Structures are given as structure tokens and as C-alpha cells.
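Notes from hallway chat w/ T.B., transcribed later so I don't forget. T.B. wanted the structure written out for a chain they're using in a teaching module, and asked if we could keep both sequence and C-alpha cells in one place. Agreed to drop them here.
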Amino acid sequence: MRKYTGVSDIKVLYVEDAKSSGGALRQALKDAHMNAVYLGGGFDALDELADSGADAVVACLDLVDLPGYQLSALIKSSSVSCRLPVILFGVTGSKVDPLWIKASQADAYFTDKEVTDAKAVVAKLKELVEESRKQGFDRQKSQALLACRSNFSSSKVVESANLLLDELVLSRSASALAARLGLSENRKELLDSFFNGIFAFVEADLVGLVVAASATPWAAFHCDKVVSGSYKKLTERLSTELELKSELQIELRGELTEGTGKDMGSVQIVPVSYKGRALGALVVASKDRNAFSDQALAFGEMLGQALPTAFELLLARETISDMQTREAYRASIDSLTGLYNLEFLVGFLQQQLLFSFRQRLPVAVVIVDIDAFSKVNQEHGFEFGDGALMTIANRLLNITRSSDLIARYGGDQFAVVLPNTDVAGARVLAEKVRSDVESLDFSNGSKGHRITVSVGCASFNMEDLNPETILRDAKLALRKAKDEGRNRISAG
């Protein structure tokens, strides 16, 4: 932040045309020895701001080319220049609707009678500039008022008005695209809207969106026959410039061509940040040099400025989704064994039966029960019993296929859903479980204890889609194994 050294250090754009009657204010600025730049219209003021900036603007409310209230509204509606102090002054006989005095958002307004008080004007200017500098504003930021680097001139009103209208249309289009992205319900919807929107304004070989503030940084790129070597260099550059602490998770759309390739000829990386915190970046690149027009570059900058809200909403939704996923996972897991619980088992089994019915595929269920488990707890304690449950759960995970689902069915029971498996296949697994458990060493200090299991098997009846039916059949088979002496299997 520049240090304030006195009124002569304040660069003021003083804007009035031949019809204005602000001579007293002009003289007041001279008498105060301020660094005043005198301009004949609002478009000349825009050109001066873009060229070298200013610390404050003093403008006539009613100008022939670009009225002071419109100039003020432009300045105050920009996120980068909104802290540039603006003072408007009126003239006798002005037909400007008083509404615009407030709508201009100017920092101060003086009537033509009030501006004759030089001390009041100078004091107000000094106060406003000091306050804006305390808030981190300097005249360099005022140069970024407009993204298009156009040559405005109050002597060429029509041409300047068209240039300004182009700028405003681009700004509005960028804001509208950012708003659509903010309304996206998920990442895919956001990316579809982003790519459709950006390609309407920019012709590029690669367009990308990088979200760096996520717990796992990710990016999406749309490529048009980009050489893999130059693509790799670009992603490495992004990781460096955005100071990513972990590898980017990338979704790639379009086509990469194998090869080493040189760097892209034209690359625009627009940072997206909020209150000094980096959220990510917008990337547009081309194989050709100087590939992008000033308007295309301006649109990219405007979109980058408009994206923080959409990024914040996306990150919030992803955080909520992750929390819901973790909560749903915790709600479906048995806290002791880490296996799925009964509620999740029933829901999964229902879906599996419907799928198997449509595909005419078999499904089997196996229920494993630890024999005399209450006696185990009584003789060796509940800590030993919990250890035995976790040991058997781990054995089930090692024995079964990745497509099988294992759940803790009750206090001393486990259930396994076996897709695309008939009752004969279920018996094979059941016997493997029974023999493995029988051979395990369940030592308790110096003591040893033999633990066995009984297993009941059942297969899917295509005539009955109720998951309770196949579970009931497996439990009946389990009861039979128990009645026949335990440590054995039975199939219903």
C-alpha cells in the first residue's frame, strides 16, 4: 500500500465538459495543489483510468457523452475498482433524475453551490482517499475497471459507446454463466454447463477448470487433439502455480495425441480466489501464438472474477455430500467387526434379488453361527469373545469373493450374500468357512479354546422376491445343522 504524503500525492480525475459549470471546483483543486488531470468527458476518464489509473474521480453529474452518474456506477459495480473514491457535483438546471444520485453509489455529492467551499471538497477527497488506501486500494487497481483494453474517447462517442456496450455484454454473459454453474446440482452438471458456455465465446484447443480448494484437488479438461507432452507440461505448470499439495485428479474430455510436443503457444490461466484464498483456476490454451482476441481474453478474466461464488457453492455441496456419504457408511457398518449391518444387508439383498430375477441368475445366502458362543463369553470374557468375532469376520473377508456381501447378522451370526451362485456353490463356501474356523487358534493367554461354527445355506426362489424368504430358509437350514450336533453345514 502506498504511503500518503499529502494532497499533491493524490491523483484526481476531474471530469467536466463545456456545458458544465464546475469552474469553482476546478479552481479549488488547483488551489489545493492536488495532482489533478482535467478531462472533457466520461469516455476520456475511462481511457485515463485504463492507461494509468487514479486515486479519486470528481465528475459532473450530467455530461454529454458518458454522464458522471453512469461513470460512478461503472466504477462502483466492479469488484476490483469499487473502492476508488468518486465525488459527483451537480449543475444548475440539470435534468438528471435524482434517483441516479443515489444509484450511482458515489461516495459524496455536492451541489454547484456547495462545491465553492474548497476546504470542504479537499477535506472530503483526502478523507476518502485515506480510507480507500487503508482498505488496500491503490490507483493500479483502478486500471482493471474494464477488462477490454479499448481506446475510449469523448470525441468519438458512438465508437466508445459501442466498445463499452461490448464490455458490458461480455460481463453480463460471464456473470450469467457463473450463475448457471452455481445452480448446478453436481460436478457433472457444472462441467457440462461450463464447457458449453465457454466454447460459445472462446475458440481453443484446450479449456479447463481447476478446483484447488477441495480436499482432493481436481480438474476437468476438454482437449481437441492436444499433444500429450504439451498437456503434461501444462498440468505440471498448474500444479506449481496453484501450489497444489497433492496430485490433481483429472477428468479428461476429448482427445490427446501421443507425442512430446512443445508448450502451448497461447495460455491463459485465470486464478479464481475469494478473500485471498485460492479456490482454483480457469484455463484456456491454444497451440497457436496470439490465438485469443482481446474480447476472448476479457471474457476469461470476467468469468474468473465471477466464479468464486460458484466454486464456494460447489465445494460446499461436495463437503455435504462427503459428510452424507461418511454418515451413510457409518450407519451401515457394524462398529465391532467393520462388516455391513443387518439393515444394509436386507436392502442389498432386495436389490440383488430384483436384478437376479430380471437376468434369471441364481443367488444364495449363507448364515454362519458360532456354536455355544454364550459359553465362550462366560468362560473367557467378553473381550475374548469380541476378538473371536473379529477374527472370524476377517476370515470371511479373505475367503469370499469381492462380489459377495458379508454382514453381521446378529450377536454371534454372520450372513453372506452370494450373487450368481446356486445352493451347491453356497455349500462349497460353507464348508470352507466351517473347516477354516475349526482350524483357527483362539488362544487366551495360556488357555486355548476350540471354536466351531454351524452354517445354513439357501438359494433364491424365483417365485418370491421377498428377501425375508431366503433369509428364513437359510435360518431353517442353520437350525437343522445345530440340531444335528453343530460344527456342520446344512442346505435348505
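Follow-up for T.B.: The radius of gyration is 37 Å. Might be a good example for the class.
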